[in-house]
Sequence to fold (288 residues):
Amino acid sequence: MLPEGLSWLEASALGRAVRGAGVWSYATINLAHILGVATLFGSVLLLDLKLLGLFQRVPLSQLSLPTVRLAAIGFGIAALSGLCLLATNATEYTGNPFLPIKFGAIAAGLANVLLVHRMRAWRDRVLESFTPLQQRQLALAGLISLLAWTTAVASGRMLGYW
Amino acid sequence: MNSRILPRIAFMVFAMGTAALPVAAHHGWAGQSDTQTRVTGKVHKPVSLDGPHASLQIVVDGQVWDVTLAPPARTQNAGLLPATLKVGEEVTILGNRSRDPKRFEMKTVRVTAGSRNFDVYPDRIK
Fold:
């Protein structure tokens, strides 16, 4: 199924548009991808380390405001530019083991976001008082997030070296 | 208790992930043979200036070779455009072959078609 999906993506209007956009198009979209990933990962790193117990003098509800917003913006830029990059020469990634690892890690990272937003400790974070159990829940979510996004970035980087 | 241990675990995981990065072969030339070889064949797929590297394909004794060129802008500046080489035209490529003998891929520094040389990596020609 994956090879067919990659062929379809490469043959799509998006693939044709990116390929027809000139010799600097790939490099330019790649730049957007890097900026998106940097914004996403930088924000996620700050928030995850906070959830893991660092930066104790910074209230969670203060740090979560800019980091969550920037992470969402970074993710949007990275996802859009990434789709364009993949559409350029999607079939070349057939059989590349880093591709399923990367998308699996992204799926895990996004699932973790949904789970965290359902946690009472997260929703009531403005109160800034957490039970030990809630602290452990938040820390676990931070650890999963850090693992998922580190894996996504690392396997994304490795894609081109396979 | 947890607030002391978990950050350490996180940093360890992060450090290990980062340390593992340079181990893999590089995009560049590390996965290629140190010696340069010449291969002559017929153009199977004309020059493409899409993607991270320009490319073309040639057929040598029934075997399709992937010819990896320089990044698109550099390849274009060397005079290689999608219309430059026609399918079926005889070309000779000079470059560094993939170290994997089962992969017919050449990271190419010069393409020769007739009397024309297209030097995509002039400083790498040995």
